[in-house]
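Input (structure):
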C-alpha cells in the first residue's frame, strides 16, 4: 500500500521559511517522479513543484520561481520542499504526490497517490 506522510507545516511570518518533508513507503521510491501541490480554501488544488526519479530534473509553478526548491533523498525515501520568502498567498494545505511515471510532471492527472496534507499558514 502506497503511503505518503507529509510534515513540516506550520505558522510562519511573511518573508520566513519552512521545509516540508514527505516520507514515502509501499513502493520503490526511486522509480517514480514526485510532486508537491497545494490547495487554499475555496480554490482548486494546484501544482507547486515536481521532480523526476533521480532529482536531476525539476519543474515549478510560475507563482514560486526562485523561492521554492524541491528535492529528494532516495536513500531515505523522502521528498522535500524548501520554501523561502513566504507570502500570505502561499497559505494552503500542501500535499505530496506520487507520479505515475519516473518523470517530473506538472499535471494533476499524472499523479496517482496523495498524502494527507500539511497546513502552511503565512501570517503576521
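Output (sequence):
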Amino acid at each position: 500500500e502506497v503511503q505518503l506522510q507529509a510534515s513540516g507545516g506550520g505558522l510562519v511570518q511573511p518573508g520566513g521559511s519552512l521545509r516540508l518533508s514527505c516520507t514515502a513507503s509501499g513502493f520503490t521510491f526511486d522509480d517514480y517522479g514526485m510532486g508537491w501541490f497545494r490547495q487554499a480554501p475555496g480554490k482548486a488544488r494546484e501544482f507547486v513543484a515536481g521532480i523526476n526519479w533521480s532529482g536531476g530534473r525539476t519543474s515549478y509553478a510560475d507563482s514560486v520561481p526562485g523561492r521554492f526548491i524541491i528535492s529528494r533523498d532516495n536513500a531515505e525515501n523522502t521528498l522535500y520542499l524548501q520554501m523561502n520568502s513566504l507570502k500570505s498567498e502561499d497559505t494552503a494545505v500542501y500535499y505530496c504526490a506520487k507520479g505515475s511515471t519516473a518523470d517530473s510532471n506538472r499535471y494533476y492527472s499524472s499523479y496517482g497517490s496523495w498524502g494527507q496534507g500539511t497546513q502552511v499558514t503565512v501570517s503576521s
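Notes: Residues 72 and 79 are 4 Å apart (CA to CA). The mean pLDDT is 95.
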